[in-house]
Amino acid sequence: MNISSSSMVEKAADATARATPTSVAHRVRGLSDRAIAWLFIAPTITLLLAINIFPLIWAIYLSFTNYRANRPNAPVQNVGLSNYERVLTDPDIWQAMQATAHFVFWTILLQTVIGFTLAYLIDRKFRGHAFWTTLILIPMMLSPAVVGNFWRFLYEPQIGLFAYAVSLVTGIPTADIQMLGNVSLAPWAIIIVDTWMWTPYVMLICLAGLRSIPDYIYEAAEVDRASAWRQFWSITVPMALPFIMLAVLFRGIENFKMFDMVTLLTGGGPGSITEVASITLKRAAFESWATGRASAFAIVLFVAVFGLANIYVKALNKVKQR
Prior knowledge:
Layout: H1 2-29, H2 33-62, H3 82-89, H4 91-122, H5 129-141, H6 144-154, H7 161-170, H8 186-211, H9 215-223, H10 228-256, H11 260-265, H12 277-286, H13 291-321
């Protein structure tokens, strides 16, 4: 009795095991590949829409109103394009955009030149290159808060190592080296910090580009007796150019949003010489509580960055197709 019962149970289990994959396959075959793909990505798309698209639509709506976040119960009126008119004619906003463009240009230039140079040197695979690569990457691993406070200490005229080093080279008294308090030096103080922190990021992208170049191209160039200088300009730079342009795109978008480093180092001062667009936007939204005008400014920034990025991506695609 027990033997027959156990054999029946085993047969039923075997039948279930054989039937389960088939039934699952039949159920899966009932859906198209496109439907299955949408089923898997639908939660992610829904989350992205909730996080990104809804706030954008809400900001567009607020940009046409006189809404103030500190008066949520006050009546909201449609003001048309007056917020955009004020944004586009406000001299303070244009000064902030000029400061932003200054930071973006110089940080991208320095990070690209230094980052590519470091990548080129590390790609030579000299003795201890792994150690130096790790050492160079350390600034990128730190949080902006740590970097900002670290460099504030370095820039201190009395006890900072930066002022001491400059004084040692130039002979200028350390008390006169006010990197964060001088109108002429404060922008460059921020540029130095951002370059120090994010050059390793550019270096990594450029290094990936350099290591994607096949060795046989250099071997063929050596057979043709091309000099190292000729190989660099005819092979290395053109083939690594898409990666360099990609690094420029990423850093350009990030630096348009520069906020934390400026806030930690200067707060937009001295005066308003280092007040970038993001700080002006924050002050309009959370100090003046002009939420509608701040939303209009945010939309203008979004359109400007999106338009420039779109043009740049088209140029990048043309370079890739060469």
